[in-house]
Design a protein that fits this description.
By secondary structure, this protein is mainly beta. It folds into two domains: about 160 residues, Hexapeptide repeat proteins (UDP N-Acetylglucosamine Acyltransferase, domain 1, 3 Solenoid), CATH 2.160.10.10; about 30 residues, no CATH class. Helix content is about 0%, strand content about 30%. The protein has one helix and 24 strands. The strands form five sheets. It has a nine-stranded mixed β-sheet with strand order 1-3-6-9-12-15-18-20-21, with no helix packed on it. Strands 5-8-11-14-17 form a five-stranded parallel β-sheet, with no helix packed on it. The longest helix has 5 residues.
């Protein structure tokens, strides 16, 4: 444990100095130079976090997750075990002569953003160039190929919306006249156009 409260397991490889206070990184995880992790995160065993990725505060990254350059994960998000991100819409081996120029240049990455408090279920795959909204919930094994708005519960292959979830994680009852309330924590939601707004 360092003076900042950062814990790095002796069998982890951590090449980045951009690790927030209180973050814990467990065995066989690899955090590359140029990656950034916020405060009070927990990175499980066997994760790979590539240079150029950005992870906010209080994020949980479970065992075996793969987070690549161009991925930004907001505060309080949950990345389940075995979650895989991508960052290239049309990948080829950079060693293939026909595409060497593509990979020598910048701009081939398709950035992905995961919003605050979103949850990505075990073994889901996130295609690149997408946005997953605040507090959205992606079911286990889902293949996400399109943007997922805030508070949406999405699952399947390809992932599709199947209602909405509360900040607390419970599925919300159906909206009546554009309004609903969580049956667990009583937080109120309303629809505003295509968006869902909490706490009003």
């Amino acid at each position: 444990m360092s003076d900042s409260g950062v814990f790095i397991h002796p069998q982890a490889i951590v090449e980045s100095a951009a690790i927030g206070s209180g973050t814990r990184i467990w065995a066989l995880a690899h955090v590359c130079k140029g990656a950034a992790l916020g405060a009070d995160c927990n990175v499980g065993e066997g994760c790979y976090i590539e240079a150029g990725s950005r992870i906010g505060d209080r994020v949980t990254v479970k065992n075996g997750a793969m987070i690549w350059d161009g991925v930004t994960i907001g505060d309080d998000a949950f990345v389940g075990p075995g979650v895989v991100f991508t960052n290239d819409v049309r990948p080829r081996s950079p060693r293939l002569g026909a595409v060497r120029d593509k990979y020598a240049a910048t701009g081939w990455r398709a950035p992905t953003t995961v919003g605050r408090g979103a949850s990505l279920g075990a073994n889901c795959t996130i295609s690149c160039g997408l946005s997953i909204g605040d507090f959205a919930m992606i079911g286990a094994g889902a293949v996400v190929t399109a943007d997922i708005p805030a508070y949406v519960l999405a699952f399947g292959n390809p992932a599709r919306g199947h209602g909405y979830v509360c900040v607390c994680g419970e599925k919300l009852p159906s909206f009546q006249k554009g309004v609903t309330r969580c049956s667990s924590c009583s937080l109120r939601y309303r629809k505003s156009g295509k968006a869902v707004v909490a706490g009003e």
